[in-house]
Amino acid sequence: MRLFACQECRNLLHFENVVCASCSSALGYLPGPGVLSAFRDGKARADEKPWKNCANSVHGVCNWMLPVEDENEFCTACRHNRVVPDLSVEGNLPLWQKLEIAKRRLIYTLDRLRLPHDPEELRFEFLADTPEHRVMTGHADGLVTIALAEADDAEREKRRNELHEPYRTLLGHMRHEVGHYYHTVLVEREGRTEEFRDLFGDETQDYAAALKAHYDKPPSDDWRGEFISHYAAAHPHEDWAESFAHYLHMVDSLEMAASFGMSVRPRLDKEGVMEAEVDFNPYKASMEDILLAWTPLTVAMNAMNRCMGTPDLYPFVLSDKVAEKLGFIHRIIQERPPLQ
């Protein structure tokens, strides 16, 4: 993610803004050019072309635009929705708004990585619990289900504590679940299964049995060093999805750091310093450059959080094995031919 500037007054803008706080210009995101644009007389100041609002803008859940000649009602992000919350139920709208913020950030990153996301293949269902059924967040054949309850901050924190997780966010959920979809796209369809197994293991092992064994096992630290998280150790598919989500965390955060012009030089000892100047595009950089910048940046982020008395923003450790898995994901994404 990066910062934007209002084309009318040069005021700083953020991805979710719909009105410029300085000049009151209406704002909308143009997914093709990848620009948050001010509008004047129905035309985007970014390209002086006419655009129209996504149909979901009336609910205050989307600020993406479509070309006026586009026959679709919904933008390229909202077309992925198959089921949205029942807005006649009190309290559902603000929860849906949070889900859409996370989903649009996800789609932004997929676009920056030039990854295909056909809405006929990759679909989202945002489902509320019922007295008879508790919705489980998950993925099946390109269908991503997100429990609406996860958008409630208190409920999500409760679940995080119950599962002994150091990190649990809506954006993290979405990045993880689409990671399962991209295993099909990037590994299976591209004939990279043997390469995958060399790093992540045999994905043909019984998934249900592996997850049961994972949850039945007493908490331990025996996963550290081999996996990015405890859950990643449950099954090769989960290892891939956790690693894929982590890769998206990294490139998105580094793009924002570069947008702010961040330079990090924490002192270590008399012999040297850990340093990083984030002045590159992580979507085009080498994995080596990404990793060299990432460690000092996360050290700084955690230190700032501790100053405010909040938990570490980045509660992870990148081992050599995890870095190798991330490097594999980076390589197969970078080697993909440009989208037509």
Outline the secondary-structure elements.
Layout: E1 4-5, E2 12-13, E3 26-30, E4 35-40, E5 43-44, E6 51-53, E7 65-67, E8 81-83, H1 92-112, E9 123-127, E10 138-140, E11 143-147, H2 153-162, H3 170-188, H4 193-200, H5 207-216, H6 236-259, E12 263-264, E13 276-277, H7 287-307, H8 320-334
Parallel strand pairs: 8-9, 9-11
Antiparallel strand pairs: 1-2, 3-4, 4-5, 6-7, 10-11, 12-13
Helix pairs in contact: 1-3, 3-6, 6-7, 6-8
Regarding quaternary structure, how should these chains be classified? single chain
Helix content: 25-40%
> How many distinct folded domains?
3
The helix/strand series, from N terminus to C terminus, equals EEEEEEEEHEEEHHHHHEEHH
In terms of DSSP E residues, the strand content is 5-15%
The rounded Rg comes to 21 Å
Distance between the termini: 23 Å
Low-confidence stretches: none
Structure description:
Helix 6 (236-259) packs across helix 7 (287-307) and helix 6 (236-259) crosses helix 8. A hairpin with a 4-residue loop joins strand 3 and strand 4. The chain has a four-stranded mixed β-sheet, with helices on one face. A three-stranded antiparallel β-sheet has the order 3-4-5, with no helix packed on it. The protein has a two-stranded antiparallel ribbon with strand order 1-2. With 340 residues, the protein is α+β, with helices and mostly antiparallel strands. The two termini are 23 Å apart. The protein has three domains: 4-75, no CATH class; 77-189; 196-340, no CATH class. The radius of gyration is 21 Å and the shape is globular. It has eight helices and 13 strands. It holds the Pfam family Peptidase_Mx. InterPro entries: UCP012641, Zinc-ribbon_6_bact. Residues 3-88 form the Zinc-ribbon domain. It comes from Sabulicella glaciei. This is Zinc-binding peptidase.
